[in-house]
Amino acid sequence: MQMVADQSNIFLESPLWKKRFPNLTAIFTTKNGGISSGHFSTLNTGLHVQDHQEDVIHNRRAVAKSSGWDLNKWIFADQIHGTRVVKVTARHAGMGTESYNEAVKAADGLWTFDQGLGLSLGFADCVPIYFAEPETGFAGVAHAGWKGSVQNIAGEMIRQADEAGVCIDKIHVMVGPSIGKCCYTVDHKVISQLPGEVSQSPGIYEQTGTDQYKLDLPELNRKLLQSAGVKDEHILLSEMCTSCHEDLFFSHRRDQGKTGRMSAVIGWREE
Ligand SMILES: [Zn+2]
């Protein structure tokens, strides 16, 4: 499955999901079409990376506008590479849009049943995971780096949805662009923390040297989603590597830490 750019090249979306869920916005921003400069050139959407705050807000407004939204309806989180997933409602609308301090505290996953809210998280290699269930109007997004992946934030999102009455069988999940196995080398410290139920699954990692492994984070998350009960045919992987596609994406590894952030945004539009 590919995510493809809209006309402005400001964001990517899945044609398949667009067709399947006409009232859903599920986008991943590119690094193009903004006004930031230097390491953040040009569409940095992260407020916490030493870019000019007013440029970031301008960029975020451009993303919202180009996808048919009002930025005041979006909600941002203060991400900490944890597994805390938070339910948000209309009363959270606008949190963190213009100030990092006002974002939802210490959360790497957001979900809602409310229409008209755009749930937004920032990325530069970590795995963006989008969740949608049309009957209940459930929408969620999670940020899964290696820590969030091995600690199974994807499963935590499914657990909370289930607890809230969403039928797991009906949840659709899309794994957006992230650093791919091609570019993601880790050491034993990371591999040793892979959850038991998936650590032996073929293809998740391979040893490439002494204490050197290539880890496939999207595939790891696919396995965890399957273990949590999500139907195989409801899981899409974008198969795009943020490090390989320098024309489209910021990459924390490739850019040696000095880089911007893309945003993953999901929400059901008001009917
Ligand atoms: Zn790559």
Supply Rg.
17 Å
- The H-and-E topology, N to C, reads as EEHEHEEEEEEHHEEHHEEHEE
Which stretches are poorly predicted, pLDDT < 50 over at least 5 residues? none
CATH topology value: CNF1/YfiH-like putative cysteine hydrolases
What structural class results from the helix and strand content?
alpha+beta
Protein name: Purine nucleoside phosphorylase
InterPro entries: Cu_polyphenol_OxRdtase, Cu_polyphenol_OxRdtase_sf, Cytotoxic_necrot_fac-like_cat
Organism: Jeotgalibacillus terrae
Family: Belongs to the purine nucleoside phosphorylase YfiH/LACC1 family.
Keywords:
binds zinc ion, Cu_polyphenol_OxRdtase, metal-binding, CNF1/YfiH-like putative cysteine hydrolases, 7 helices, single chain, six-stranded mixed sheet, 271 residues, alpha+beta
Describe this structure as you would to a colleague.
By secondary structure, the chain is of the alpha+beta class. The protein has one domain (4-179, 218-268): 4-Layer Sandwich (CNF1/YfiH-like putative cysteine hydrolases). 20% of the residues lie in helices and 24% in strands. It contains seven helices and 15 strands. The chain has helices spanning 15-20, 53-66, 146-150, 153-163, 188-191, 196-199, 217-227; strands spanning 4-5, 11-13, 24-29, 74-76, 85-87, 109-112, 118-123, 127-133, 138-144, 172-175, 185-186, 205-209, 212-215, 235-237, 262-268. A six-stranded mixed beta sheet has the order 1-2-3-15-7-4. It is globular. The mean pLDDT is 97. Zinc ion is lined by residues 180, 182-183, 241, 243-244.
